[in-house]
Amino acid sequence: MNAFDANRDPIDLTPETRYARQVVLPEIGASGQRKLLGSSVLIIGCGALGCIQAELLARAGVGKLVIADRDVPTIHNLQRQFLFDEDDVAAKLPKAVAAARKLKKINSTINIEEIVMDITPDNIEGLVKASDVILDGTDNFETRFLINDAAVKYGKPWIYGGVQGTMGMVLPVCPVSGPCLLCLLSEPPPHASLPTCDTHGVLNTIVAWIASLQVTEAFKLLLGYNFPVYSMNVFDLWKGTFRSVPVKRDGNCPTCVQRHFEYLEADAGSRTLILCGRNAVQVSPALPQNLSLDVVGERLSRAGPVSINGRVIEFQTEGHRMIIFPDGRVIVGETKDPAIARSLVAKYLGN
Ligand SMILES: [Zn+2]
After folding, report:
1. ∠ at Cα 83 (89, 87), nearest 5°?
2. Cα–Cα distance between 280 and 334 in angstroms, integer?
3. Is 104 helix (H, G, I), strand (E, B) or coil?
4. For a Cys-Cys bond, which of 84, 147, 172, 205 suits 217, CB 3.0-4.6 Å?
5. Domains contained in the chain, CATH given
6. pLDDT at 194 over 90
7. CA-CA distance, 53 to 49, in Å (whole number)?
8. Mind listing the pLDDT tens digit for each residue in 287-343?
């Protein structure tokens, strides 16, 4: 069905009408709207944050949206992943495909590209190079460090966003003029050290809040506004608290100063191994870990049955059995697909 079907009145789809309430905003105006229509935004991860980012950008008339995601929606996702419904869960439609379908109904006049794949060092560079701004919709630091490397390499701004529980944070990264993610964090937090939405829950209002802030920062970047200061803003919506942490460029930053791209140069393929004859995939962390099985087991027990035998954790969830070793390796059973295995590890171990 399109806007000119015989059975309904035609809709005025011209930009002048559609974006009228945005064009009258002095912050945007007619020239700003033209800039948005000529822009391309890459959304990496179409989960809770990515769904809202994509919808806001589509409604605002960003001319090209590229949505990359490796997963399919589950019933647990519907609480906070606004572009999906029960039919998408039943159809096991990939999130990028289901999202693009909804977005094309919302705005048929922009270009929406869906990419159903795991973002790895092998495929990220072309996507980042072709975009004006990249939005973080991921659930793991491994991918964020990869985004940071590619964004710094090609001088593209990206907006880090994270949510968990009732809290969330946003950091715009503008590699040409400001600090990068490695200036703030020298390396990803240790494997399985942080609570995740899947083990500790998340309030859907903080998701909407953080995604809105990320998109507002993206608008400013696309419209050419400069950032006077760089800071990471941290919110707790339940407590109503807000903290702004200034972030400065580290003069020795290996990424934005020395231009070593460790995460882009890593061989993603070597991190996952399909275990022949076992219907299982092994996912290894970038660096060996030293996990406390009791601590990790306690966290995971919130999301599914856990047993610890002193050497490994056995955790069952979403129809998969995961065996977690103290060095951070995880064997994910009931799949031969590395993308599914990496997705489960990111969801439950957070890296
Ligand atoms: Zn840096």
Report:
1. 30
2. 6
3. helix
4. 172
5. 38-265 (3.40.50.720), 268-349 (3.30.310.10)
6. no
7. 6
8. 678 888 899 999 999 999 999 887 889 999 999 999 898 888 898 999 988 888 988
pLDDT digit string (tens) for 81-114? 999 999 999 998 889 999 999 999 999 999 999 9
- Separation CA 139–CA 168 (nearest Å): 12
DSSP character at residue 151: H
Q: Count of CB atoms within 10 A of residue 251's CB? A: 7
Structure-block tokens of residue 31: 């020239």
Tokens of 317: 């969830």
Does the pLDDT at position 254 exceed 90?
A: yes
pLDDT value at 35 more than 90 = yes
User: What's the CA-to-centroid distance between 188 and ligand 1, angstroms?
Assistant: 14
Q: Any idea which residue has 């951070």 for tokens? A: 328
Ligand 1 centroid to residue 231 C-alpha, Å? 14
- Integer-rounded Cα Rg, in Å, for the chain is 21
| Ion ligand 1, residues whose Cβ is below 5 A away | 180, 182-183, 253, 255-256
Catalytic residues, by residue number, are 197
64-69 vs 111-116, strand pairing mode? parallel
Query: Which tokens hold the place of 234?
Result: 């941290």
pLDDT at 305: 94
